[in-house]
C-alpha cells in the first residue's frame, strides 16, 4: 500500500475518530492513523496530518517490550522505593508485618500506577503534548502499536483491578479507609479541576506530589499494621518533592517546543532563565531536605555516606544546568538524562548505605559473640 496522508481539522466530525483510532466510515479497522504533524495546537483552528498505515504493516516489538513501554515499567521505582523504606523502617521498629495486607497493597499500587501511566500517555496524545514534544522515547500510541481507544480499555481494566484489591485491604486494615478516601478526593480534584491534567496546573502538580509522597508512604505504613508517624510523613514529603522535581525536569527538556505550541506548565510560565535558576535552587533544597531527614532519622554513618555521595553525584547535574545558554539544541535533553541518573544513584546510595550499615552491625555482633 502506498503511503497515504490526510489532514483533518478539529471542526471535522472525523477528527476525534482519527485521534482515538476508532473505526469509522473514513477509517477502516485495518488502517491505523499515525499523527506526524500538528498545526495550531490548542486553538479552534487545530489540524493534524496523519500518515495512514495498514495495521499489519506496523512493526511492533516483542509483546513484553510493548507492555513495558505502555505501562512505563522503568518508572515503577517511584512506587517501589517507598516500599523499601517502609519495610526497612518497620523491620527495625515493630516485631511483625501484616504481609498479606502489604502484599495486596503493593499489587494494587502496581496495577493502579500502570493504569494511570497509560491514561497519562492517552492524555498526552489527545491533548497534543506528545505530538509536539517528540523525543527518543518510544510511545506505543504514537508508534501505532496500539490505538488510544484500546489503551483506554487496558487502563480502565488495570484501575478497576486495583480498586477491587484495595477494597480487600480495607476489610483487614480499617485505618486505611480514611486515607483511601482522601486519596480519591485529591485525585478527583487533580483530574477535573482544570484541563484534566496534572501537568497544566500548579494545584495538580501539588496534588500529584502529595499522592506519590505522603499518601503513598502512609498507605504502605498502614498496610503493614503500623501507625503513621512524623518520620513517615517526612519521607513522604521528601519523596513527593523529588518526583515533583523530575516532572519539572521533564517539562524543562521540552521547554522550546511546549512554549511554541502554547502548552502551559510551570516551566513554560517561568521561561528559560528563571526555569534554569528554579532547577538549581530546587535541587539544592532537595539535598538539604534529604540531609536533614538523614540527620534526624538515620545514623551518623548513613548521614555522612549519603551526603558525600549525593554531593558528588549532583556535580554533573549542576554543571549541565549551568552550562546551558539557550533552550535550543540538546542541552535540555541532557539535563533530563543527567537528572534521572542522579535520581537512580540517590536510590542506590540510600539502599547501599542501609545494607553496608547492617553488614557492619552483623560483623560486630559476630566478633563480639566469638569472644
Q: Which band does the percent of strand residues land in?
A: 5-15%
Poorly predicted segments: none
State Rg: 23 Å
Number of helices: 14
**Would you tell me the structural class of the helices and strands?**
mainly alpha
Shape: globular
- Give the biggest sheet: 3 strands, antiparallel
What topology, given as strand order, has the largest sheet? 1-3-2
* Average residue pLDDT: 84
What does this structure look like?
There is one protein chain. It is built from 14 helices and 3 strands. The chain starts with a strand and ends with a helix. The mean pLDDT is 84. A 3-stranded antiparallel beta sheet has the order 1-3-2. Helix content is 70%, strand content 6%. With 371 residues, it is mainly α. Helix 4 runs antiparallel to helix 7. The longest helix is centred in the last third of the chain and has 40 residues, at 331-370. The protein is globular.
Amino acid at each position: 500500500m502506498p503511503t497515504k496522508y490526510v489532514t483533518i481539522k478539529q471542526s471535522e466530525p472525523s477528527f476525534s475518530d482519527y485521534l482515538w483510532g476508532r473505526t469509522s466510515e473514513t477509517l477502516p479497522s485495518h488502517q491505523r492513523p499515525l499523527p506526524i504533524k500538528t498545526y495550531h495546537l490548542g486553538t479552534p483552528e487545530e489540524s493534524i496530518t496523519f500518515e495512514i498505515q495498514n495495521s499489519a504493516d506496523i512493526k511492533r516489538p516483542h509483546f513484553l517490550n510493548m507492555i513495558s513501554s505502555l505501562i512505563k515499567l522503568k518508572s515503577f521505582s517511584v512506587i517501589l522505593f517507598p516500599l523499601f523504606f517502609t519495610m526497612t523502617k518497620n523491620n527495625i521498629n515493630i516485631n511483625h508485618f501484616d504481609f498479606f495486607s502489604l502484599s495486596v497493597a503493593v499489587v494494587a499500587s502496581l496495577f493502579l500506577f500502570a493504569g494511570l501511566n497509560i491514561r497519562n500517555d492517552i492524555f498526552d496524545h489527545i491533548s497534543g503534548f506528545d505530538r509536539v514534544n517528540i523525543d527518543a522515547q518510544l510511545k506505543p500510541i504514537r508508534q501505532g502499536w496500539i490505538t488510544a481507544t484500546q489503551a483506554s480499555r487496558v487502563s480502565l481494566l488495570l484501575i478497576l483491578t486495583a480498586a477491587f484489591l484495595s477494597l480487600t485491604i480495607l476489610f483487614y486494615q480499617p485505618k486505611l479507609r480514611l486515607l483511601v478516601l482522601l486519596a480519591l478526593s485529591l485525585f478527583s480534584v487533580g483530574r477535573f479541576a482544570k484541563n484534566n491534567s496534572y501537568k497544566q496546573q500548579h494545584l495538580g502538580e501539588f496534588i500529584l506530589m502529595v499522592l506519590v509522597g505522603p499518601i503513598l508512604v502512609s498507605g504502605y505504613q498502614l498496610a503493614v499494621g503500623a501507625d503513621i508517624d512524623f518520620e513517615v510523613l517526612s519521607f513522604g514529603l521528601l519523596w513527593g518533592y523529588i518526583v515533583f522535581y523530575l516532572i519539572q525536569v521533564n517539562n524543562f527538556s521540552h521547554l522550546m517546543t511546549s512554549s511554541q505550541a502554547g502548552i502551559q506548565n510551570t516551566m513554560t510560565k517561568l521561561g528559560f532563565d528563571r526555569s534554569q535558576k528554579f532547577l538549581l535552587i530546587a535541587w539544592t533544597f532537595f539535598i538539604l531536605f534529604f540531609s536533614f531527614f538523614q540527620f534526624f532519622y538515620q545514623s551518623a554513618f548513613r548521614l555522612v555516606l549519603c551526603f558525600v555521595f549525593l554531593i558528588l553525584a549532583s556535580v554533573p547535574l549542576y554543571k549541565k544546568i549551568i552550562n546551558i545558554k539557550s533552550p535550543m539544541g540538546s542541552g535540555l535533553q541532557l539535563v533530563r538524562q543527567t537528572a534521572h541518573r542522579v535520581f537512580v544513584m540517590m536510590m542506590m546510595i540510600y539502599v547501599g548505605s542501609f545494607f553496608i550499615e547492617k553488614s557492619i552491625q552483623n560483623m560486630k555482633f559476630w566478633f563480639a559473640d566469638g569472644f
